[in-house]
Specification:
homodimer, alpha+beta, Arc Repressor Mutant, subunit A, Dna Ligase, domain 1, 2 domains, three-stranded mixed beta sheet, two-stranded antiparallel sheet, 5 strands, 35% helix, DNA-binding
Chain lengths: 135, 135
DNA sequence: GTCCGTGCAAAAGCTTTGCAGCCTT
DNA sequence: AAGGCTGCAAAGCTTTTGCACGGAC
């Protein structure tokens, strides 16, 4: 599910650039705090507020997304190609799944409702191979 | 996505019984506070803590679920049959969609990953007919 | 009689925001 | 020069938790 960019103009900021780079460089679907910790050495005066503010801007620009995975905190990702999530019930890890996408289900739902459907999000729940091995 | 009940035994409580009844009686996918306000006249000493504690128990019993709809607060539902959600981007309302279910996509995903898939959740995003009419 | 559930209030998390100064434009 | 962006800190909101008491079993 991609959010449409607002078209609003933003100024350049080094912090935002790096937040996006770090977000793009990881597969861990991190939290704001994780990004903060990661960038703190580079920006010793960085504040969490800045991370949150920039994440909001990146989301508005369509460059990042917030993931609702049932945790008490928000997680983020910068991947913009359509993909789904595999969420592990045991360890909470989130894995991307991009091998298959089902655009046709939007059409199927559209037929039986007057809701104006833009897109969908699918999350698969289960246990990851690491957790399976351990039990 | 249904969570498996833990099998734990719980004592009877009038508050919990009523929370479940009220949750079952509404289609609004309410918040904890909404349930609290709804039941406060009936239990003048009711506390929010009790609502949260009982919601957690109901979820553990498999009688309720938490919904992650991108808001800053949790929303709940008591519907247990498999269904999807239509989430309105404008007003935030959540609608159930039970007319069609796609169990086969679990199988499709299973084939291309070693993740042990139990089930999935789908949320459709767009605008509801009310909001469409207004704009 | 036990010990779980409740009410109350405090605490805990995560996220947002007001403000003054700095940096981009 | 104007106004967004930042750091800092305080505030805000939702959810959780400790404790003493009352009710379920």
């Amino acid at each position: 599910m991609k959010q449409k960019p607002s078209g609003k103009h933003y100024r350049y900021s080094r912090q935002r650039e790096r937040i996006l780079e770090v977000l793009r460089s990881t597969e861990s679907h991190p939290t704001a705090t994780w990004l903060y910790d990661k960038l703190k050495p580079e920006f010793p005066r960085l504040s969490l507020g800045t991370v949150y503010r920039n994440l909001a801007i990146l989301i508005d620009l369509g460059l990042a997304r917030k993931i609702d995975a049932g945790s008490t905190f928000d997680r983020f990702e910068a991947k913009t190609e359509p993909h789904y999530h595999l969420i592990c019930r045991k360890c909470g890890k989130i894995f991307d799944f991009g091998a298959r996408f089902f655009p046709e289900i939007d059409e199927e739902i559209r037929r039986s409702t007057d809701f104006d459907i833009e897109g969908h999000r699918i999350d698969f729940f289960g246990t990851c191979s690491d957790c399976n091995r351990k039990s």
